[in-house]
Write a structure and sequence with these properties.
The protein has about 525 residues and is an alpha/beta fold. The protein has helices at about 20-45, 95-105, 125-130, 160-175, 205-220, 240-255, 295, 300-305, 335-345, 375-385, 395-400, 410-415, 445-455, 475-485, 495-529, and strands at about 50-55, 70, 120-125, 140-145, 155-160, 180, 185-190, 225-230, 260-265, 270-275, 285-290, 310-315, 355-360, 360-365, 375, 390, 430-435, 435-440, 460-465. Helices cover about 35% and strands about 20% of the residues.
């Protein structure tokens, strides 16, 4: 239905021909459409994900060439990662700088560039990064992944827009002029995401070379100090192709005077050495470590250390929440860190070697069916506000005995053997919720300081956090402040002889565990017969 025309004041009439009217309307429509498209593209560039590709690409292009960024809204995410992409917010750097300077950074704060033990962290939390960047020697913004799932085309996706990358790098440098900004490219192999052509699988050296040049161009375009490669969970057949890719990438990154960091799976010494024959490789993989699964087999510490400036061992998930075995426990206890260091120090130069430890823990059910859940500082504070028992250090076998819960806490007691003669520096909270007994292992200042003291004794290059988030224990920042300013008291270093003795002890303990298990099986069989 059409409405009645409203009365209007009389205007002086101007006559246009029908053709002129249509021409004017069409021109107006074209103008408005173009203007709307312009606004839309600019909005996506600021707020959307960015696909990174090269135009007119040649392998290992000239140093003057930079990445041509094609802007398009990204529908591809990383389904295997539990971390969320950082939300991009437009903020005024000056106000942020003033706020942080007043509230976080003491006026006499000064980083010691000559400190031999460096602090670093991976992070997806922009707020945490900008508020604590002054406490770190190196920051790894966790912002890149590969485009494509089961196949790759060399391109990257960033959770920060082009504008955010430029502005945030500049802001971090203003907050801490001495910090090294080394973003991470992450991919974990799973049924929907692979690491294939980007490392030259299937003979696609063209895609591998394109991938390398895109990485180098990103470093130069945004003024990074280097790049961190975090390619995890690769099947053993990818070992040699990954190494070829890494050598070529190192050559190009170092040509630009930049740093190359690599994240690797943890390994511990084994008393036996054996060869793993993996299809597609020119020679067997020597297994001189216990962790015989697809991830660690592709990360050769000694090889990667020859070409990397940083080798960061992901020393966490000793008791992963997604698996029933080995049940509740700490994520990176010192007893385990010692084994990892014992293996790594013989293969990686000390100055390059970093141990990456967690800022989180898990909260486990002890006598009911319930999934474990991640726990941070605020979660620990909430639990502590109610009825609970806190233990630090945590001796699981002693707790099982004193609480007389060996029979009822089945989710823990069936794994009691692995905790024998071990007292963990990690704190734990034992409480009841919803009719279920639970235990939460978490990270606090005391446990963190004990881990750092251990790493400093082994004279490592530094440590990394997975990950730097706003909900970390704020008291840890007090320790970090002393660390990066070189104000911590000296520690007595562990000698090479002590390291060798430690290695022998690890092997002997492994043999003893195996013998104990064999004896237990024999006793059970005898009892049955």
């Amino acid at each position: 239905m059409q409405s009645e025309p409203t009365s209007e004041p009389k205007r002086k009439s101007t006559s246009f021909s029908p053709k002129a009217k249509y021409t004017f309307l069409f021109a107006s429509w074209v103008f408005l459409s173009a203007f709307s498209f312009y606004l839309g593209m600019n909005l996506m560039a600021k707020e959307g994900g960015i696909s990174l590709s090269l135009k007119n690409q040649s392998p290992f292009g000239k140093s003057e060439e930079v990445a041509q960024n094609s802007v398009e809204t990204s529908s591809e995410g990383n389904e295997s990662s539990e971390s969320n992409s950082t939300e991009i917010k437009e903020e005024k750097p000056t106000s942020v700088l003033e706020e942080i300077t007043k509230e976080e950074v003491p006026p006499d704060f000064s980083i010691d560039e000559n400190v031999s033990f460096r602090a670093s962290a991976w992070s997806t939390d922009w707020s945490a990064m900008r508020k604590t960047v002054h406490l770190y020697n190196e920051i790894h913004p966790f912002i890149y992944t590969m485009r494509g799932g089961l196949s790759n085309n060399g391109e990257l996706i960033s959770s920060w827009s082009q504008t955010a990358r430029k502005e945030r790098v500049a802001e971090l440098r203003q907050l801490n002029p001495k910090v090294k900004i080394i973003p991470t490219i992450f991919r974990w192999e799973n049924p929907k995401e692979k690491i294939q052509e980007n490392i030259g699988m299937g003979g696609r050296t063209d895609i591998r070379d394109k991938h390398i040049q895109i990485i180098v161009n990103e470093i130069e375009t945004y003024g990074y100090d280097g790049i961190d490669i975090d390619y995890e969970g690769m099947s053993c057949d990818k070992k040699e192709k990954f190494e070829d890719f890494f050598v070529l990438l190192a050559r190009e990154v170092h040509k630009k005077g930049k740093l190359l960091s690599v994240a690797v799976h943890p390994k511990t010494p084994s008393d036996k050495k054996k060869d793993l024959n993996c299809k597609g490789l020119s020679k067997p993989i020597q297994l001189d470590f216990r962790e015989n699964w697809r991830g660690p087999t592709t990360h050769d510490y000694a090889f990667l250390a020859k070409h990397a400036d940083r080798v960061k061992i992901m020393a966490y998930e000793l008791h992963p929440r997604k698996y029933h075995n080995p049940g509740p426990g700490p994520q990176a206890p010192n007893v385990w860190l010692k084994d990892i260091i014992t293996y790594a120090k013989k293969r990686v130069p000390t100055s390059k070697l970093y141990m990456a430890i967690p800022t989180y823990g898990y909260d486990w059910a002890l006598n009911c069916k319930s999934s474990a859940k991640a726990i941070y500082h605020s979660d620990a504070q909430r639990i502590r506000s109610g009825a609970h028992k806190k233990h630090q250090p945590t001796d699981i076998n002693q707790i099982l005995t004193s609480e007389n819960k060996m029979g009822s806490w089945r989710n823990l007691s069936k794994f009691a053997d692995i905790h024998k003669n071990r007292a963990y520096e990690d704190p734990s909270l034992w409480y009841t919720s919803g009719g279920c007994d639970r235990v939460a292992f978490y990270m606090n200042r005391k446990a963190f300081e004990e881990k750092m003291t251990l790493l400093r004794k082994y004279d490592l290059g530094g440590f990394s956090f997975w990950q730097l988030v706003t909900d970390n224990d704020p008291e840890i920042n007090e320790y970090l402040s002393l660390l990066v300013q070189g104000k911590l008291p000296a520690v007595e270093k562990i000698s090479d002889k002590e390291l060798d003795d430690s290695s022998k002890k690890v092997v002997a303990e492994e043999k003893q565990i195996k013998l104990t298990k064999i004896k237990e099986k024999t006793i059970k069989k005898t009892a049955v017969n």
